[in-house]
Amino acid sequence: MRFKAIVWLLFAASISSANSSDAQVGYSSIPGGRVLLDAKVQMRDGIRLSADIYFPAGKGPFPVVLVRTPYDNSPLAGKGLTFAKGGYVYVAQDCRGRFDSEGIYYPWTQEVTDGLDTRKWIAKQPWCNGKIATIGGSYLGVVQWFGVQESSEYLTAMMPSVTPTDGWRCGDNAFYVNGAFQLPVLAWGFSNQSRTRQPTDTYVDWEALFRHLPLMDMDRVATGNTVPFMRDWIKHSSYDDYWRRISLESKFDRINVPVYNIAGWFDAYPGSALRAFSEMRKNAASESVRKGQRLLIGPWPHAISRSSTTGEIDFGPGAIVDTLEGLSGHNVPEDLAFRWFDYWLKGIDNGIMNEPPIRIFVMGENVWRNENEWPLARTQFTNFYLHSDGRANSLDGDGSLSTAPPVGAERADAYVYNPENPVPTRGGNFSYSIPGGKFSTSGPHDQRPNERRDDVLVYTGEALKEDFEITGPLTCKLFVSSSAPDTDFAVKLIDVHPDGRAINYSDGMLRMRYRDSLETSKLMERGKVYAVTIEMFPTSIVLKKGHKIRVHVTSSDFPHFDRNPNTGHDFGIDAEVRTADQRLYHDTRYPSRIVLPVIPRARR
User: Fold this and answer.
1) Catalytic residue among 28, 100, 152, 302
2) pTM of the entire structure?
3) In the annotation, is 138 catalytic?
4) 10-residue block means of pLDDT along the chain (604 residues)?
5) CA pair distance 190, 383, nearest whole angstrom
6) How many other CB atoms sit within 10 Å of the CB of residue 445?
7) Catalytic residue of the set 117, 267, 507, 562
8) Active-site residue 560, yes or no?
Protein backbone atom coordinates (compact mmCIF):
# COMPACT_ATOMS: atom_id res chain seq x y z
CA MET A 1 0.00 0.00 0.00
CA ARG A 2 2.76 2.42 0.95
CA PHE A 3 4.72 1.58 -2.21
CA LYS A 4 1.69 2.34 -4.40
CA ALA A 5 1.17 5.64 -2.62
CA ILE A 6 4.77 6.65 -3.25
CA VAL A 7 4.59 5.67 -6.93
CA TRP A 8 1.37 7.67 -7.33
CA LEU A 9 2.97 10.61 -5.54
CA LEU A 10 5.99 10.63 -7.85
CA PHE A 11 3.76 10.35 -10.92
CA ALA A 12 1.61 13.29 -9.83
CA ALA A 13 4.73 15.28 -9.01
CA SER A 14 6.21 14.67 -12.44
CA ILE A 15 3.05 15.98 -14.12
CA SER A 16 3.08 19.06 -11.91
CA SER A 17 6.75 19.70 -12.63
CA ALA A 18 6.24 19.41 -16.37
CA ASN A 19 3.48 22.05 -16.31
CA SER A 20 5.26 24.50 -14.03
CA SER A 21 7.39 27.57 -14.56
CA ASP A 22 11.13 27.66 -13.84
CA ALA A 23 10.60 29.83 -10.78
CA GLN A 24 8.25 27.57 -8.89
CA VAL A 25 5.90 24.70 -9.63
CA GLY A 26 2.34 24.50 -8.39
CA TYR A 27 0.97 22.35 -5.61
CA SER A 28 -0.07 18.74 -6.15
CA SER A 29 -2.29 16.70 -3.88
CA ILE A 30 -0.85 13.79 -1.94
CA PRO A 31 -2.62 11.40 0.42
CA GLY A 32 -3.28 13.49 3.52
CA GLY A 33 -1.75 16.70 2.21
CA ARG A 34 -0.02 18.38 -0.73
CA VAL A 35 3.45 18.79 -2.25
CA LEU A 36 5.33 21.71 -3.80
CA LEU A 37 8.21 20.67 -6.04
CA ASP A 38 11.30 22.66 -6.98
CA ALA A 39 10.69 25.62 -4.70
CA LYS A 40 13.65 27.97 -5.11
CA VAL A 41 15.34 29.13 -1.90
CA GLN A 42 17.74 32.04 -2.40
CA MET A 43 21.05 32.10 -0.57
CA ARG A 44 22.88 35.25 0.54
CA ASP A 45 25.00 35.23 -2.63
CA GLY A 46 21.99 34.98 -4.95
CA ILE A 47 22.33 31.24 -5.71
CA ARG A 48 18.98 29.43 -5.59
CA LEU A 49 18.70 25.97 -4.07
CA SER A 50 15.88 23.63 -5.01
CA ALA A 51 13.57 22.15 -2.38
CA ASP A 52 10.64 19.76 -2.54
CA ILE A 53 8.16 20.57 0.25
CA TYR A 54 5.54 18.16 1.62
CA PHE A 55 2.64 19.59 3.65
CA PRO A 56 0.19 17.96 6.05
CA ALA A 57 -3.56 18.41 5.63
CA GLY A 58 -4.97 21.58 7.20
CA LYS A 59 -4.00 25.22 7.26
CA GLY A 60 -1.11 25.17 9.71
CA PRO A 61 1.28 26.62 10.60
CA PHE A 62 3.24 23.43 11.29
CA PRO A 63 6.59 22.35 12.70
CA VAL A 64 9.16 21.64 9.98
CA VAL A 65 11.63 18.81 9.37
CA LEU A 66 14.49 19.87 7.08
CA VAL A 67 16.71 17.50 5.10
CA ARG A 68 19.56 18.75 2.90
CA THR A 69 21.19 16.23 0.56
CA PRO A 70 23.81 16.07 -2.21
CA TYR A 71 22.30 12.80 -3.45
CA ASP A 72 19.06 14.06 -5.11
CA ASN A 73 16.01 14.95 -3.05
CA SER A 74 13.50 13.08 -5.25
CA PRO A 75 14.07 9.64 -3.64
CA LEU A 76 13.03 11.24 -0.33
CA ALA A 77 9.41 11.44 -1.48
CA GLY A 78 8.40 8.53 0.71
CA LYS A 79 9.94 10.21 3.75
CA GLY A 80 8.09 13.41 2.89
CA LEU A 81 4.81 11.54 2.79
CA THR A 82 5.56 9.85 6.13
CA PHE A 83 6.34 13.12 7.92
CA ALA A 84 3.42 14.96 6.32
CA LYS A 85 1.09 12.27 7.66
CA GLY A 86 2.74 12.79 11.05
CA GLY A 87 1.86 16.49 11.09
CA TYR A 88 5.16 17.99 9.88
CA VAL A 89 6.10 20.05 6.87
CA TYR A 90 8.99 18.18 5.27
CA VAL A 91 11.55 20.17 3.28
CA ALA A 92 13.99 18.13 1.14
CA GLN A 93 16.62 20.36 -0.42
CA ASP A 94 19.34 19.61 -2.98
CA CYS A 95 22.70 20.95 -1.81
CA ARG A 96 24.40 23.70 -3.81
CA GLY A 97 25.56 22.54 -7.22
CA ARG A 98 23.73 19.22 -7.03
CA PHE A 99 20.78 18.10 -9.15
CA ASP A 100 18.15 20.91 -9.30
CA SER A 101 20.10 23.45 -7.23
CA GLU A 102 22.21 26.19 -8.76
CA GLY A 103 25.88 26.85 -8.07
CA ILE A 104 29.04 24.76 -7.94
CA TYR A 105 29.36 21.84 -5.56
CA TYR A 106 32.29 21.95 -3.15
CA PRO A 107 31.75 19.53 -0.24
CA TRP A 108 31.52 20.66 3.37
CA THR A 109 32.55 24.31 3.18
CA GLN A 110 29.40 25.60 1.48
CA GLU A 111 27.09 23.97 4.03
CA VAL A 112 27.97 26.39 6.83
CA THR A 113 26.12 29.37 5.32
CA ASP A 114 23.63 27.50 3.11
CA GLY A 115 22.18 25.67 6.11
CA LEU A 116 21.53 28.88 8.04
CA ASP A 117 20.14 30.71 5.00
CA THR A 118 17.73 27.85 4.34
CA ARG A 119 16.46 27.86 7.94
CA LYS A 120 15.98 31.63 7.80
CA TRP A 121 13.88 31.25 4.66
CA ILE A 122 11.77 28.48 6.21
CA ALA A 123 11.18 30.50 9.38
CA LYS A 124 9.66 33.33 7.34
CA GLN A 125 7.14 31.13 5.56
CA PRO A 126 3.52 31.28 6.74
CA TRP A 127 3.34 27.49 6.98
CA CYS A 128 6.18 27.34 9.57
CA ASN A 129 5.30 27.72 13.24
CA GLY A 130 8.87 28.70 14.13
CA LYS A 131 10.07 25.22 15.12
CA ILE A 132 12.52 23.52 12.75
CA ALA A 133 14.32 20.20 13.14
CA THR A 134 16.97 18.54 10.96
CA ILE A 135 17.58 14.86 10.28
CA GLY A 136 19.84 12.63 8.22
CA GLY A 137 22.89 10.41 8.12
CA SER A 138 26.41 10.71 6.71
CA TYR A 139 26.58 13.83 4.51
CA LEU A 140 22.95 14.52 5.50
CA GLY A 141 24.31 14.74 9.05
CA VAL A 142 27.34 16.83 8.04
CA VAL A 143 25.03 19.55 6.73
CA GLN A 144 23.26 19.61 10.11
CA TRP A 145 26.39 20.08 12.21
CA PHE A 146 28.03 22.47 9.79
CA GLY A 147 24.83 24.43 9.33
CA VAL A 148 24.89 25.48 12.99
CA GLN A 149 28.51 26.67 13.03
CA GLU A 150 27.44 30.19 12.16
CA SER A 151 24.31 30.22 14.31
CA SER A 152 21.81 27.85 15.94
CA GLU A 153 19.06 30.36 15.19
CA TYR A 154 15.74 29.00 13.87
CA LEU A 155 16.65 25.46 14.90
CA THR A 156 14.81 23.50 17.61
CA ALA A 157 16.30 19.97 17.43
CA MET A 158 18.75 17.85 15.44
CA MET A 159 19.13 14.14 14.66
CA PRO A 160 22.44 13.44 12.87
CA SER A 161 23.54 9.88 12.21
CA VAL A 162 26.96 8.33 11.35
CA THR A 163 28.44 11.79 10.95
CA PRO A 164 31.93 13.26 11.40
CA THR A 165 32.48 16.55 13.21
CA ASP A 166 35.93 17.25 11.78
CA GLY A 167 37.75 16.46 8.55
CA TRP A 168 41.24 15.92 9.90
CA ARG A 169 42.17 16.55 13.48
CA CYS A 170 40.77 13.69 15.52
CA GLY A 171 41.35 9.99 15.40
CA ASP A 172 38.26 8.93 13.47
CA ASN A 173 37.30 11.62 11.02
CA ALA A 174 36.37 11.96 7.40
CA PHE A 175 39.53 12.46 5.36
CA TYR A 176 42.56 11.83 7.55
CA VAL A 177 42.99 9.61 10.60
CA ASN A 178 45.96 10.84 12.62
CA GLY A 179 47.63 11.91 9.39
CA ALA A 180 46.89 8.85 7.22
CA PHE A 181 44.53 9.45 4.30
CA GLN A 182 41.38 7.34 3.88
CA LEU A 183 41.33 6.26 0.24
CA PRO A 184 37.59 5.40 0.15
CA VAL A 185 36.92 9.14 0.51
CA LEU A 186 38.45 9.62 -2.93
CA ALA A 187 36.06 7.02 -4.33
CA TRP A 188 33.20 9.06 -2.85
CA GLY A 189 34.64 12.20 -4.43
CA PHE A 190 34.87 10.58 -7.87
CA SER A 191 31.20 9.61 -7.68
CA ASN A 192 30.04 13.04 -6.54
CA GLN A 193 32.35 15.45 -8.36
CA SER A 194 29.70 16.81 -10.76
CA ARG A 195 26.04 17.79 -10.63
CA THR A 196 24.72 14.23 -10.63
CA ARG A 197 26.08 11.00 -9.21
CA GLN A 198 28.63 9.36 -11.52
CA PRO A 199 28.62 5.57 -12.09
CA THR A 200 32.34 5.19 -11.45
CA ASP A 201 31.86 1.83 -9.73
CA THR A 202 30.90 0.33 -13.07
CA TYR A 203 34.02 1.20 -15.04
CA VAL A 204 36.90 2.03 -12.68
CA ASP A 205 39.49 -0.63 -11.89
CA TRP A 206 39.66 0.28 -8.22
CA GLU A 207 42.50 -2.04 -7.29
CA ALA A 208 44.72 -0.43 -9.94
CA LEU A 209 43.45 3.07 -9.18
CA PHE A 210 44.12 2.86 -5.44
CA ARG A 211 47.70 1.85 -6.23
CA HIS A 212 48.20 4.78 -8.57
CA LEU A 213 50.86 7.28 -7.61
CA PRO A 214 51.04 10.16 -7.18
CA LEU A 215 47.72 10.53 -5.40
CA MET A 216 47.36 14.09 -6.65
CA ASP A 217 46.80 12.79 -10.20
CA MET A 218 44.31 10.10 -9.25
CA ASP A 219 41.33 12.28 -10.23
CA ARG A 220 42.50 12.54 -13.84
CA VAL A 221 43.08 8.80 -14.04
CA ALA A 222 39.62 8.00 -12.66
CA THR A 223 37.50 10.70 -14.30
CA GLY A 224 39.58 12.41 -16.97
CA ASN A 225 39.01 15.65 -15.09
CA THR A 226 40.69 17.70 -12.41
CA VAL A 227 38.53 17.68 -9.27
CA PRO A 228 39.49 20.81 -7.29
CA PHE A 229 38.08 19.80 -3.92
CA MET A 230 39.83 16.43 -4.05
CA ARG A 231 43.15 18.07 -4.84
CA ASP A 232 42.60 20.47 -1.94
CA TRP A 233 42.04 17.53 0.42
CA ILE A 234 45.43 16.12 -0.58
CA LYS A 235 47.17 19.50 -0.66
CA HIS A 236 46.10 20.28 2.92
CA SER A 237 47.67 17.22 4.51
CA SER A 238 48.26 18.94 7.87
CA TYR A 239 45.62 20.34 10.18
CA ASP A 240 45.54 23.94 8.96
CA ASP A 241 43.00 26.75 8.46
CA TYR A 242 41.39 24.84 5.60
CA TRP A 243 40.22 22.21 8.11
CA ARG A 244 39.76 24.55 11.10
CA ARG A 245 37.06 26.58 9.41
CA ILE A 246 34.83 23.53 8.96
CA SER A 247 35.68 21.77 12.24
CA LEU A 248 33.23 21.64 15.12
CA GLU A 249 35.73 20.40 17.68
CA SER A 250 36.24 23.83 19.29
CA LYS A 251 32.76 25.21 18.63
CA PHE A 252 30.36 23.07 20.61
CA ASP A 253 29.81 25.89 23.10
CA ARG A 254 28.22 27.94 20.31
CA ILE A 255 25.52 25.36 19.62
CA ASN A 256 22.23 25.74 21.47
CA VAL A 257 20.27 22.76 20.13
CA PRO A 258 19.25 19.41 21.67
CA VAL A 259 20.86 16.67 19.59
CA TYR A 260 20.13 12.97 19.28
CA ASN A 261 23.36 11.45 17.92
CA ILE A 262 23.28 8.03 16.26
CA ALA A 263 26.41 6.03 15.46
CA GLY A 264 27.72 2.56 14.64
CA TRP A 265 30.62 0.81 16.31
CA PHE A 266 31.98 -0.15 12.85
CA ASP A 267 31.34 3.17 11.15
CA ALA A 268 34.19 5.63 10.61
CA TYR A 269 32.73 8.12 13.11
CA PRO A 270 31.65 6.62 16.48
CA GLY A 271 34.30 8.74 18.20
CA SER A 272 32.83 11.87 16.63
CA ALA A 273 29.38 11.07 18.01
CA LEU A 274 30.80 10.34 21.46
CA ARG A 275 32.86 13.53 21.52
CA ALA A 276 29.92 15.60 20.30
CA PHE A 277 27.67 14.12 22.98
CA SER A 278 30.21 14.66 25.77
CA GLU A 279 31.20 18.17 24.65
CA MET A 280 27.60 19.28 24.27
CA ARG A 281 26.77 17.87 27.72
CA LYS A 282 29.57 20.01 29.17
CA ASN A 283 29.68 23.11 26.98
CA ALA A 284 26.37 23.71 25.19
CA ALA A 285 25.01 27.22 25.50
CA SER A 286 22.23 26.47 28.02
CA GLU A 287 21.46 24.01 30.81
CA SER A 288 18.33 22.68 29.07
CA VAL A 289 20.34 21.94 25.93
CA ARG A 290 23.15 20.32 27.94
CA LYS A 291 20.55 17.99 29.45
CA GLY A 292 18.94 17.56 26.05
CA GLN A 293 21.72 15.47 24.51
CA ARG A 294 21.10 11.83 23.62
CA LEU A 295 23.21 9.09 22.02
CA LEU A 296 22.52 5.71 20.41
CA ILE A 297 25.30 3.37 19.19
CA GLY A 298 24.64 -0.02 17.62
CA PRO A 299 26.75 -2.80 16.03
CA TRP A 300 26.46 -1.17 12.63
CA PRO A 301 28.69 0.02 9.79
CA HIS A 302 27.98 3.29 7.93
CA ALA A 303 24.24 2.61 8.00
CA ILE A 304 21.82 1.31 10.57
CA SER A 305 21.69 -2.30 9.54
CA ARG A 306 18.46 -3.96 8.50
CA SER A 307 20.28 -7.24 9.01
CA SER A 308 21.50 -8.73 12.25
CA THR A 309 24.84 -9.42 10.54
CA THR A 310 27.63 -6.88 10.20
CA GLY A 311 30.75 -8.08 8.44
CA GLU A 312 31.09 -11.74 9.39
CA ILE A 313 29.35 -11.63 12.77
CA ASP A 314 25.65 -12.11 13.51
CA PHE A 315 24.73 -9.90 16.47
CA GLY A 316 21.24 -11.33 16.87
CA PRO A 317 17.76 -9.93 16.24
CA GLY A 318 18.26 -7.07 18.69
CA ALA A 319 20.67 -5.44 16.23
CA ILE A 320 17.84 -4.79 13.75
CA VAL A 321 15.82 -1.59 14.08
CA ASP A 322 13.06 -0.07 11.95
CA THR A 323 14.46 2.86 10.02
CA LEU A 324 13.52 5.60 7.61
CA GLU A 325 16.44 4.41 5.54
CA GLY A 326 16.46 4.40 1.75
CA LEU A 327 18.44 5.78 -1.15
CA SER A 328 19.85 9.03 0.22
CA GLY A 329 17.60 8.37 3.19
CA HIS A 330 17.69 9.32 6.82
CA ASN A 331 19.31 6.21 8.28
CA VAL A 332 17.65 6.73 11.66
CA PRO A 333 15.13 4.66 13.63
CA GLU A 334 11.65 5.78 12.55
CA ASP A 335 9.93 5.53 15.93
CA LEU A 336 12.82 7.29 17.66
CA ALA A 337 12.74 10.15 15.15
CA PHE A 338 9.07 10.84 15.75
CA ARG A 339 9.44 10.59 19.52
CA TRP A 340 12.36 13.06 19.45
CA PHE A 341 10.64 15.58 17.21
CA ASP A 342 7.22 15.20 18.85
CA TYR A 343 8.80 16.13 22.18
CA TRP A 344 10.82 19.12 21.01
CA LEU A 345 8.63 20.47 18.20
CA LYS A 346 5.13 19.56 19.41
CA GLY A 347 5.62 19.60 23.16
CA ILE A 348 4.36 16.04 23.61
CA ASP A 349 5.66 14.57 26.87
CA ASN A 350 6.29 11.04 25.57
CA GLY A 351 8.92 10.12 28.17
CA ILE A 352 11.95 10.34 25.89
CA MET A 353 13.67 12.86 28.15
CA ASN A 354 13.14 10.64 31.20
CA GLU A 355 15.30 7.90 29.70
CA PRO A 356 19.07 7.59 30.32
CA PRO A 357 21.02 9.75 27.86
CA ILE A 358 23.11 6.92 26.33
CA ARG A 359 22.00 3.63 24.85
CA ILE A 360 24.72 1.29 23.57
CA PHE A 361 24.75 -2.17 22.06
CA VAL A 362 27.19 -4.42 23.92
CA MET A 363 28.58 -6.84 21.37
CA GLY A 364 29.44 -10.36 22.40
CA GLU A 365 26.52 -10.38 24.82
CA ASN A 366 24.43 -8.80 22.06
CA VAL A 367 22.26 -6.73 24.36
CA TRP A 368 21.26 -3.07 24.58
CA ARG A 369 22.25 -1.21 27.74
CA ASN A 370 21.56 2.27 29.09
CA GLU A 371 24.38 4.43 30.42
CA ASN A 372 24.69 7.94 31.86
CA GLU A 373 28.12 9.20 30.78
CA TRP A 374 31.12 8.57 28.52
CA PRO A 375 33.59 7.14 29.33
CA LEU A 376 31.62 5.05 31.83
CA ALA A 377 32.32 6.12 35.39
CA ARG A 378 33.12 2.54 36.43
CA THR A 379 35.81 2.10 33.74
CA GLN A 380 39.10 0.59 34.87
CA PHE A 381 41.69 1.59 32.28
CA THR A 382 44.05 -1.39 32.24
CA ASN A 383 47.46 -1.84 30.60
CA PHE A 384 48.03 -4.97 28.56
CA TYR A 385 51.73 -5.21 27.72
CA LEU A 386 53.28 -6.59 24.55
CA HIS A 387 55.90 -9.31 25.05
CA SER A 388 58.09 -11.53 22.90
CA ASP A 389 61.62 -12.84 22.53
CA GLY A 390 62.02 -10.84 19.33
CA ARG A 391 59.93 -13.02 17.03
CA ALA A 392 56.32 -11.87 17.22
CA ASN A 393 56.04 -12.00 13.41
CA SER A 394 52.85 -13.73 12.27
CA LEU A 395 50.65 -16.14 14.17
CA ASP A 396 53.56 -18.61 14.27
CA GLY A 397 55.67 -16.14 16.28
CA ASP A 398 56.24 -15.87 20.02
CA GLY A 399 54.29 -12.68 20.76
CA SER A 400 52.23 -12.62 23.95
CA LEU A 401 49.99 -10.17 25.81
CA SER A 402 49.47 -9.79 29.55
CA THR A 403 48.85 -7.29 32.35
CA ALA A 404 52.34 -8.01 33.68
CA PRO A 405 54.83 -5.29 32.67
CA PRO A 406 58.13 -6.34 31.12
CA VAL A 407 60.93 -7.22 33.53
CA GLY A 408 64.45 -6.61 32.29
CA ALA A 409 65.40 -6.84 28.64
CA GLU A 410 63.16 -8.25 25.94
CA ARG A 411 64.36 -8.37 22.36
CA ALA A 412 62.67 -5.88 20.04
CA ASP A 413 60.46 -7.18 17.25
CA ALA A 414 61.35 -6.26 13.69
CA TYR A 415 59.74 -6.44 10.28
CA VAL A 416 60.05 -4.89 6.82
CA TYR A 417 57.25 -2.70 5.55
CA ASN A 418 57.11 -2.75 1.76
CA PRO A 419 54.57 -0.32 0.23
CA GLU A 420 54.44 -2.49 -2.87
CA ASN A 421 53.04 -5.32 -0.77
CA PRO A 422 50.82 -3.67 1.88
CA VAL A 423 48.73 -5.52 4.43
CA PRO A 424 45.25 -5.76 2.87
CA THR A 425 42.20 -4.24 4.53
CA ARG A 426 39.98 -6.83 6.19
CA GLY A 427 37.05 -4.96 7.68
CA GLY A 428 37.41 -2.22 10.25
CA ASN A 429 36.00 1.28 10.53
CA PHE A 430 35.38 3.16 7.32
CA SER A 431 32.38 4.95 5.85
CA TYR A 432 32.32 4.88 2.07
CA SER A 433 32.36 1.27 0.89
CA ILE A 434 35.54 0.27 -0.88
CA PRO A 435 34.23 -0.50 -4.38
CA GLY A 436 35.25 -3.16 -6.84
CA GLY A 437 34.33 -6.31 -4.97
CA LYS A 438 37.97 -7.20 -4.24
CA PHE A 439 38.07 -5.68 -0.76
CA SER A 440 36.17 -6.56 2.39
CA THR A 441 33.37 -4.39 3.67
CA SER A 442 33.67 -2.58 6.98
CA GLY A 443 32.91 -4.40 10.20
CA PRO A 444 34.25 -7.50 11.98
CA HIS A 445 36.15 -9.95 9.78
CA ASP A 446 38.42 -12.93 10.39
CA GLN A 447 41.99 -11.61 10.39
CA ARG A 448 43.75 -14.97 10.05
CA PRO A 449 44.75 -14.42 6.40
CA ASN A 450 46.74 -11.37 7.49
CA GLU A 451 48.21 -13.21 10.47
CA ARG A 452 50.20 -15.40 8.08
CA ARG A 453 52.33 -12.40 7.11
CA ASP A 454 55.73 -11.69 8.65
CA ASP A 455 55.07 -7.95 8.52
CA VAL A 456 52.21 -8.35 11.02
CA LEU A 457 53.29 -8.59 14.66
CA VAL A 458 50.87 -10.73 16.67
CA TYR A 459 50.53 -10.61 20.48
CA THR A 460 48.03 -12.99 22.09
CA GLY A 461 46.87 -13.33 25.70
CA GLU A 462 45.91 -16.43 27.62
CA ALA A 463 42.41 -17.87 27.38
CA LEU A 464 40.03 -15.79 29.50
CA LYS A 465 38.81 -17.48 32.68
CA GLU A 466 35.62 -15.43 32.73
CA ASP A 467 33.70 -13.06 30.50
CA PHE A 468 35.65 -9.85 29.94
CA GLU A 469 34.08 -6.52 28.92
CA ILE A 470 35.83 -3.75 26.99
CA THR A 471 33.67 -0.64 26.64
CA GLY A 472 35.09 2.80 26.00
CA PRO A 473 37.94 4.66 24.26
CA LEU A 474 41.13 2.71 23.49
CA THR A 475 44.72 3.81 23.06
CA CYS A 476 47.92 2.01 22.19
CA LYS A 477 51.25 3.29 23.54
CA LEU A 478 54.17 2.04 21.49
CA PHE A 479 57.93 2.54 21.38
CA VAL A 480 59.07 2.28 17.78
CA SER A 481 61.88 3.13 15.38
CA SER A 482 62.28 3.04 11.61
CA SER A 483 64.90 3.33 8.91
CA ALA A 484 62.52 5.70 7.07
CA PRO A 485 62.08 9.46 7.62
CA ASP A 486 58.33 8.90 7.71
CA THR A 487 56.22 5.78 8.00
CA ASP A 488 52.98 4.46 9.55
CA PHE A 489 52.07 2.21 12.44
CA ALA A 490 48.70 0.48 12.58
CA VAL A 491 47.10 -1.39 15.49
CA LYS A 492 44.14 -3.77 15.77
CA LEU A 493 42.28 -5.22 18.77
CA ILE A 494 41.25 -8.81 18.06
CA ASP A 495 38.83 -11.23 19.74
CA VAL A 496 40.17 -14.77 19.27
CA HIS A 497 37.40 -17.39 19.35
CA PRO A 498 38.02 -20.95 20.58
CA ASP A 499 37.70 -22.18 16.97
CA GLY A 500 40.61 -19.92 15.97
CA ARG A 501 38.69 -17.09 14.30
CA ALA A 502 40.38 -13.75 14.94
CA ILE A 503 37.74 -11.01 14.77
CA ASN A 504 38.64 -7.31 14.76
CA TYR A 505 36.74 -4.86 17.00
CA SER A 506 38.91 -1.74 17.03
CA ASP A 507 41.82 -0.32 15.11
CA GLY A 508 44.05 2.72 14.98
CA MET A 509 46.54 4.34 12.64
CA LEU A 510 49.30 6.94 13.04
CA ARG A 511 51.44 8.66 10.42
CA MET A 512 54.72 9.21 12.23
CA ARG A 513 55.39 12.72 10.92
CA TYR A 514 52.34 13.77 12.99
CA ARG A 515 53.39 11.98 16.19
CA ASP A 516 53.91 15.26 18.10
CA SER A 517 51.53 17.62 16.37
CA LEU A 518 48.71 17.31 13.86
CA GLU A 519 49.37 20.84 12.70
CA THR A 520 53.10 20.61 11.98
CA SER A 521 54.80 17.57 10.50
CA LYS A 522 58.22 16.45 11.69
CA LEU A 523 60.28 13.73 10.07
CA MET A 524 62.01 10.93 11.98
CA GLU A 525 65.67 10.25 12.62
CA ARG A 526 66.86 6.89 11.39
CA GLY A 527 66.90 4.30 14.20
CA LYS A 528 65.77 6.70 16.93
CA VAL A 529 63.21 5.28 19.37
CA TYR A 530 59.98 7.27 19.57
CA ALA A 531 57.20 7.00 22.14
CA VAL A 532 53.86 7.32 20.37
CA THR A 533 50.21 7.11 21.41
CA ILE A 534 47.77 5.80 18.82
CA GLU A 535 44.14 6.71 19.37
CA MET A 536 41.91 3.77 18.42
CA PHE A 537 38.22 3.48 17.67
CA PRO A 538 35.93 3.15 20.69
CA THR A 539 34.03 -0.09 21.12
CA SER A 540 31.84 -2.17 23.41
CA ILE A 541 32.51 -5.91 23.36
CA VAL A 542 32.28 -8.75 25.85
CA LEU A 543 34.91 -11.38 25.11
CA LYS A 544 33.43 -14.63 26.38
CA LYS A 545 35.12 -17.11 28.68
CA GLY A 546 37.67 -19.16 26.71
CA HIS A 547 38.32 -16.40 24.16
CA LYS A 548 41.67 -14.60 23.93
CA ILE A 549 42.67 -10.94 23.51
CA ARG A 550 45.02 -10.32 20.62
CA VAL A 551 46.80 -7.21 19.28
CA HIS A 552 48.23 -6.70 15.81
CA VAL A 553 50.90 -4.12 14.99
CA THR A 554 51.94 -3.43 11.41
CA SER A 555 52.47 -0.49 9.03
CA SER A 556 49.68 -0.61 6.46
CA ASP A 557 45.95 -1.20 6.04
CA PHE A 558 45.33 -0.88 2.32
CA PRO A 559 43.17 0.38 0.68
CA HIS A 560 41.44 1.72 3.77
CA PHE A 561 44.47 4.02 4.08
CA ASP A 562 46.94 5.20 1.48
CA ARG A 563 50.33 3.51 1.51
CA ASN A 564 52.99 5.57 3.20
CA PRO A 565 55.82 5.59 0.61
CA ASN A 566 58.43 5.92 3.42
CA THR A 567 60.24 8.73 1.57
CA GLY A 568 59.37 11.68 3.80
CA HIS A 569 58.43 13.73 0.74
CA ASP A 570 55.39 16.04 0.66
CA PHE A 571 52.11 14.15 0.71
CA GLY A 572 50.36 13.27 -2.54
CA ILE A 573 53.09 14.19 -5.02
CA ASP A 574 55.32 11.15 -4.60
CA ALA A 575 55.51 8.37 -7.18
CA GLU A 576 58.50 6.77 -5.43
CA VAL A 577 58.23 4.16 -2.69
CA ARG A 578 60.88 2.63 -0.42
CA THR A 579 60.94 -0.23 2.03
CA ALA A 580 61.32 0.54 5.75
CA ASP A 581 62.90 -1.52 8.50
CA GLN A 582 60.57 -1.25 11.50
CA ARG A 583 61.22 -2.07 15.14
CA LEU A 584 58.87 -2.28 18.10
CA TYR A 585 60.38 -2.24 21.62
CA HIS A 586 58.82 -3.78 24.73
CA ASP A 587 61.18 -3.95 27.69
CA THR A 588 61.51 -2.24 31.06
CA ARG A 589 62.63 1.00 29.45
CA TYR A 590 60.12 0.85 26.60
CA PRO A 591 56.93 -0.81 27.92
CA SER A 592 54.73 -0.93 24.79
CA ARG A 593 51.11 -1.61 25.67
CA ILE A 594 47.48 -1.28 24.75
CA VAL A 595 45.23 0.49 27.28
CA LEU A 596 41.82 -1.18 27.47
CA PRO A 597 38.70 0.32 29.09
CA VAL A 598 37.73 -2.64 31.26
CA ILE A 599 34.23 -2.70 32.74
CA PRO A 600 33.89 -4.83 35.89
CA ARG A 601 31.39 -7.62 35.45
CA ALA A 602 28.44 -7.73 37.81
CA ARG A 603 28.51 -10.76 40.07
CA ARG A 604 25.52 -13.02 39.57
Assistant:
1) 302
2) 0.92
3) yes
4) 39 38 58 90 97 93 97 91 94 96 93 94 96 94 87 91 78 80 87 82 83 92 86 92 85 90 93 93 90 95 83 91 57 87 97 96 96 97 98 98 94 98 94 71 94 98 98 98 98 98 97 94 97 96 98 96 96 95 97 98 69
5) 42
6) 22
7) 267
8) no
